[in-house]
Amino acid sequence: MFDWAYDLVVRLIDWGGYFGVYLLTLLETVVPPIPSEVILPIAGMRAANGPLGLPGVIIAGTLGSMTGNLFWFLLARRISEDGLRRFVIRHGRWITMDWRDVEKAQRLFDQHGGGIVFTARLLPAVRTFVSIPAGVAHMPLGRFLAWSTMGTLIFCAAFTGAGYAAGANVVRIEEIMRPVTAVIVGGIILWYIWRQLTWKRSHPEA
Questions:
Q1: Phi and psi for 153 in degrees, rounded to 5?
Q2: Shortest CA distance to 39 belongs to which of 63, 1, 2, 6?
Q3: Around 154, how many Cα atoms within 13 Å sit in the side-chain half-sphere?
Q4: Over the stretch 173-196, which tens digit does the pLDDT of each residue have?
Q5: What is the largest CA-CA distance in the chain?
Q6: List of residues 6+ apart from 174 with CB closer than 8 A
Q7: Chain-centre distance of CA 48, in angstroms?
Q8: What is the C-alpha separation between 126 and 93, in angstroms, rounded?
């Protein structure tokens, strides 16, 4: 059912090389169609069996993710707190978030901003979205870039390295990655549906 995700990643990487990896991770960060947990292992696998090198794939993946991270960070810095509140109140159901969630995130950033950004970059569920509260909290740009880059680099190296290590047997890894891709993409869709069905505001004001 989700073979399209695997095929799309392979085709873009084979077509664009390092730029294909960059483009996929950029798109995944800005408008997540296919998660990095799928993209990076496949990129590592292709590096193990093609003209791409592992360091170049890791760098391309990191740069793509960081470009997307910076996009969301700079966009969020331009949004006032009142504007963000109105957006969350209006669209909270679709992003499964209410204003109390935003307030909790802001308090955490006030206390542990750099550490939160670094840790979040290592966590599949929240790594894409942590740029927004960091931008709203007006975290210093240099600090944001430093902590984000470190976390993103480790994440990319881990998942790309896993694909590279397993890529010696191309036929077998493709047989494995297709169902893994289906499980990950399907799991994300089911998780979002579950969040929609069970979501409710923490309090009426938000």
A1: -60, -45
A2: 6
A3: 14
A4: 556 555 655 565 566 566 667 666
A5: 56
A6: 45
A7: 23
A8: 17
Block residue for tokens 């392979």:
10
| One-letter identity of residue 200 | K
Token pair recorded at residue 91:
């669209």
Q: pLDDT per residue over 3-58, tens digit each?
A: 666 777 888 888 999 999 999 999 888 876 677 778 888 899 888 887 889 999 99
CB atoms within 10 A of CB 93: 13
Residue with tokens 């297709």: 178
Give residue limits of the domains in the chain: 3-198
pTM beyond 0.70, yes or no: yes
Alpha-helix residue ranges (DSSP H) falling in 2-138? 3-16, 18-30, 36-48, 54-77, 81-95, 99-120, 131-136
